[in-house]
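Reopening: DNA-binding transcriptional regulator, MarR family still failing for me.
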Amino acid sequence: MESFLDQSAGYLINMTALLLKREMTGALSRNKINVTPEQWAILNRLSENSGLSQKEVAKRTFKDNANITRILDKLEKKGMVKRQMDANDRRVWKIHITKEGKRVRDQIEPLAKEILQKATHGIDPKDVQTFNAAAKKMLQNLGQ
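Support: Ran it again with your exact input. Result attached.
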């Protein structure tokens, strides 16, 4: 008999996220791509909208300010992002993805799609859509 925890959406989503992250870390390592899943998430958001403030990047990737600063420092050292002071507010830094950042992001996308295909193998596409819609609604309900 499954326990309450085993049937909990929070537990199941968390465990799935951990396993997806593990798969992504392994794929990045096997392909000798020198970024972490967290760094890739930031590159992904910046490829959608380069020039976000550091605060906006943190919000869109669910990272706190200390973590986002550390991750951006590493990406900047790798030449994948650059910081630029906001012309209207010198306290704000805009984060831009570089050509190298775009190249690496584009190199990783097929790996991520492959991992998602593995994770959803044998699941009806309609069920995947239903899950995605439910997860998005949970994020909204929790204030994201």
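Strands lie at 52-53, 81-85, 93-97. If you still see a failure, please send the error message rather than a screenshot.
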